[in-house]
Amino acid sequence: DPVADGEALVRQNCASCHAVTQEDASPNPRAIPFRFLGRLYPIEHLEEALAEGIMVSHEMPEFVLEPEQVTALIQYLNAIQVR
What we know:
Blueprint: H1 2-13, H2 37-40, H3 46-52, H4 67-80
């Protein structure tokens, strides 16, 4: 299940800073809750950045994901959006 795989990825790699569900708070108050990413831009626009390696600040580690991981992550992010 790609959505479950995406959830596992964000829980393992992102939850130490970001809220990764529809209800939790971000441990780092400067890190956007993932459920609100769709308010900033279409989730699908993250696909290329995730595939090539996303680096947005000195505090965030660089991640490079395999194509199936990118697909799973995009599907999970779409599933939790609060618009």
